[in-house]
What we know:
Blueprint: E1 10-14, H1 19-30, E2 34-39, H2 42-49, E3 55-59, H3 65-79, E4 84-87, H4 103-129, E5 135-139, H5 152-172, E6 177-183, H6 189-195, H7 202-210, H8 220-231, E7 242-245
Parallel strand pairs: 1-2, 1-4, 2-3, 4-5, 5-6, 6-7
Helix pairs in contact: 1-8, 3-4, 4-5
Amino acid sequence: MTDLRFDGRTVLVTGGAGGFGSATCRSFGDRGANVVVADLNLEKAQEVAADIPSALAIRMDVTDPESIQAGIQSAVDSFGGLDVLVNNAGAPNRSGPLEETSVKDMDWLYQINYRSTVIATQAALPHLRASEIGNVVNVASISAKRPRPGHAVYCSLKAGVEALTRATAVELAPEIRVNSVSPVIAETGFVKNAMGSDKIPDDVRASMVAGIPMGRTADTQDVANAIVYLASDLASFQTGVCLDVDGGRSI
C-alpha cells in the first residue's frame, strides 16, 4: 500500500544498531526512506546502514545532549530535513532488588531511557514542524503496565515514556503526531544487559511465555512493523497512542 511508503522522507532511529532499532531501520529503508542509523556503536550502525539503499550511520550517545543535537543536525545536513524521529535507544539494569540499585545506576537509567527521549524530541522539533508529516514514535515497554520484579526503576521510567508520549501528543498537535510502542521482551541485546546472558534460559523463557497468550516472546520485526505503521500515513489520525506489542501479556 502506498500509505506505507516513505519515499523522500527522512527517519532517524536512536539505538539504530540494536535489535528493535536495526529491524526498524531496515523496515523504513525497504519503504523508500532516507534512514539515519544513530547508535553509540558506530561500527554496528555502519553495518546496518550498508543494507539500506539511502542511509547514514552516525555515532550518537543519547546520554549526552550535545551528541543528540549534533546527530540530528547531521541528519538534516545530509538529507535536507527530518520527518520522523524514533526514540528507540534504551537499556535495563541488571535484575536485582530495589535496595541494591545505586544512585549512579538510577541516574544512568534515567538518562538513557527517559531524558534522551525528551532531549531528542526537543532537538528535532524545529525540523519536524517544517515537515508535512512530522511525527515521533517512542519505544516504551510493556513493563510500564506489567512490571516484573528486579527492574523497578526501569519499569517506572518506561511508564514515564508512555506519559510523555500522551503529554507531548496533546502539546504538539496538530502539527506533530506523537505515539509509542510498548514491546514485551524479545531476545535482543536487552536480554544480556538484564540477565547477564546472551539467551534467555529455557526455564525463564517458559515462565515468561506462560504469561503471553500468543505463546512466544516478541520478534524484532513485530516491533518494527508497529513503529512503521504509527509513523505512516495510515495512522494520520492517531496521536497519543501507546500501542502494546506484547502478544496479549497486558490483558
